[in-house]
Specification:
Layout (H helix, E strand, L loop, with lengths): L2 H15 L4 H15 L5 H12 L6 H13 L3 H13 L5 H17 L2 H6 L1 H10 L6 H12 L9 H10 L3 H7 L1 H22 L12 H12 L1 H10 L5 H19 L5 H34 L2 H12 L3 H15 L5 H8 L4 H7 L3 H15 L7 H10 L3 H24 L2 H9 L5
Length: 431
């Protein structure tokens, strides 16, 4: 390892350790590397701008953010919740199932775990806490666990970022996330059923079956969002970025004209908030692109691939080792940083070992989502604590069972690649 790289890594960990935002820490550390190597600081700006402006795919990120914020506005969340209560609220632990099903549905609109937890998640937590139906800590924990589904079922901002660094098919990644997302929903519902029977959590008053068609029709236009996205991409009608634009436009039509739940003032606020979120993601992406330039300059991916090749590890051992590392890193780093900075280091080895990049990518994204609820720095735990006021210690006390079942689902995806690859291959993916 060169002196310049040591200075870069040391300054990065120091700045992050004293609380500097990760994006700024990466930018400053990159400048230190470039300066120590005797190169022009302008290289930092050039790589940042080239990486962002030359990637048409990256336009999908702000568009998905806009679509999610629009779908969060008005009465759409309420309509989706009424549909979920009507379908699964009648079973033991009813509102827990409603919580998970709402995340499954909302994930087809937002692509963001934080948007899910802070938006529709807060509404469900308030419902679960009413009349002491569920303990506050349990309501918060199951909301955090179910919010991890958001970026797994398409659309998915983390999968867009993974496609950026790996050149994997974004359409195959989106399709590959559907069955894992449903699997996670199923295991979380199983855990909720078990805990509800053990603790005596109740059921909701059953909604008469004759009302189910009306509630389904009420929510149906919102439920069409993921179908429109996948048909556009896999039907050859749109590129992934154009599909994101269609999703944002469809969300706007739905909220403003069909449901009449969005005013001009509300739309302006949505655009402001979306611009802020996009800028925050853009800073991390820019910093990661510069750091990736440094990593490539030091030839680290090829050195790592050569070292792992000498160890003669099997693909499954490699997958397990990488996922253990990602689970540990997920305790301290956010998903965007892991996907953009850490995961590219392992892609050459994946190619050498014959590991399908779509399988690896979906598993890595699921792993990063588990990191969002892993103490001590799981961001979803802090988001729910901030929007509900439920003490962090109560949330952490209840999260461990959900963490364990999510790790079991992750292992299933690792050992049985068809869980990820069945739908992409069915649609013609050749990986």
């Amino acid at each position: 390892m060169s002196v310049e790289l040591l200075l870069c890594v040391g300054s990065l960990f120091f700045l992050a350790g004293i609380g500097v935002p990760v994006a700024y820490a990466i930018l400053v550390a990159s400048m230190i590397y470039v300066g120590a190597a005797g190169q022009s600081i302008g290289i930092v700006g050039k790589n940042l701008l080239d990486g962002i402006y030359q990637s048409f795919l990256l336009l999908a990120v702000p568009l998905f953010i806009v679509a999610a914020n629009i779908m969060n506005a008005g009465t759409i969340s309420d309509r989706l919740l009424n549909f979920c209560v009507a379908t699964v609220g009648r079973f033991k632990g009813g509102l827990g199932h409603v919580n998970i099903m709402a995340s499954l549905i909302f994930s087809g609109m937002s692509g963001s775990a934080v948007a899910d937890a802070a938006g529709i998640g807060k509404i469900i937590i308030d419902m679960m806490r009413k009349d002491n139906r569920f303990t506050p800590g349990y309501a918060a924990a199951i909301t955090a666990a179910s919010a991890t589904i958001g970026p797994i079922i398409p659309p998915s901002i983390p999968m867009v970022l993974y496609a950026l660094v790996s050149n994997a098919s974004i359409g195959a990644l989106f399709l590959g996330g559907i069955l894992p997302g449903l699997l996670i929903g199923a295991v979380l519902m199983g855990m909720n059923t078990y805990i509800s029977h053990k603790r005596g959590f109740g059921i909701e008053a059953p909604v008469p079956l004759r009302q189910l068609p009306r509630k389904t029709a009420d929510a149906f236009p919102a439920l069409l969002m993921p179908a429109i996205l996948l048909y556009g991409i896999y039907g050859g009608v749109t590129t992934p970025t154009e599909a994101a634009a269609v999703a944002a436009f469809y969300a706007l039509l739905l909220s403003s004209l069909f449901y009449r739940a969005l005013s001009l003032r509300g739309l302006f606020s949505i655009f402001i908030e979306s611009a802020r979120s996009s800028a925050a993601v853009g800073l991390v992406i820019g910093g990661a692109l510069i750091l990736n330039y440094i990593v490539a300059s030091e030839n680290i991916p090829n050195l790592l691939a050569g070292y792992l090749g000498e160890l003669n590890v099997s693909p499954i051992v490699f997958m397990l080792g990488v996922n253990v590392l990602l689970l540990v890193l997920g305790c301290f780093l956010d998903a965007t940083t892991i996907i953009l900075v850490i995961i590219p280091l392992f892609l050459p080895t994946c190619r050498n070992l014959g590991i399908d990049l779509v399988h690896f990518g979906v598993v890595a994204v699921v792993n990063c989502m588990i990191g969002l609820i892993t103490p001590p720095y799981g961001i979803l735990l802090f988001v729910i604590n901030a929007v509900t006021g439920i003490p962090l210690r109560d949330i952490i006390r209840e999260i461990w069972g959900f963490l364990a079942i999510l790790v079991c689902a992750l292992l299933l995806m690792i050992f049985i690649p068809e869980v990820v690859l069945f739908l992409p291959r069915f649609a013609g993916y050749g990986g």
